[in-house]
Amino acid sequence: MFExxxxxxxTLRDLLRFAVSRFNEAKLFFGHGAxxxxxxxxxxxxxxxxxxxxxxxPFLDARLxxxxxxxxxxxxxxxxxxxxxxxxxxxxxxxxxxxxYVDQRVIVPRSFIAELLREQLVPWxxxxxxxxxxxxxxxxxxxxxxxxxxxxxxxxxxxxxxSPDALAVAARNVADYDLESRIRLLExxxxxxxxxxxxxxxxxNPPYVNAASMARLPAEYQREPVLALASGEDGLDLTRAILxxxxxxxxxxxxxxxxxxxxxxxxxAAFPETPFIWLDTAAGDQYVFLLHREELP
Length: 297
Prior knowledge:
With 297 residues, the protein is of the alpha/beta class. The chain is 37% helix and 15% strand.
């Protein structure tokens, strides 16, 4: 089928239709940026042809060279056969207007906390200029550390991860944003490597997938590092560890912000006396909690 496409398809419109048909036929899972076959095909084709990602219409009827068709069909075929998320095929992922380098050493960047940092955590942070220190736990690609550095321009940011491979990716992204002087990358199992340092703000998008969900993950998610996804039987192992130790690493009146996916009910059942504040995001108000230092267990 792909050999026939190479000889018979001519325009970007032809190849886009072909890609959407093949993606739907293969029943791919979309959840790493795009949520449907059309958007993912558009992104992959425009990226492969070095065209502006927001300018499809002017190029739809452009005829492609033989080499360009081969390039496009190769990435479409890999997406189907290898079930790789698009971000791993292009080595880039987008959160809002921020672009990040990614490969299979890190999960594809996605976090509700990014939206909150773009808003500088208003109203919980009264003056973003007064935030001087931030810790990003489980930094992965470094995306939230970079968001935090832009949100709080006077802050020094420590970004920690247990994976040296992830930190290598984060280092590339920090360098891309010219933030080496403000973001310090540390290999650490949560707080173990930061000794007695304290921060005004701690943010974390830790692993939070429970065992039952891990067993049912679509193939695309199985291409991501298990270390960055799984968190015990109920998905709360890392969150429990963060709650247990965060107080001693926050300054007075400091804030802890943690993403927990769909685990709100289990978390509130496990910590019935803790007054979690659930932050509103575009996707809902059940995915990210905030606690003041004085409210921590």
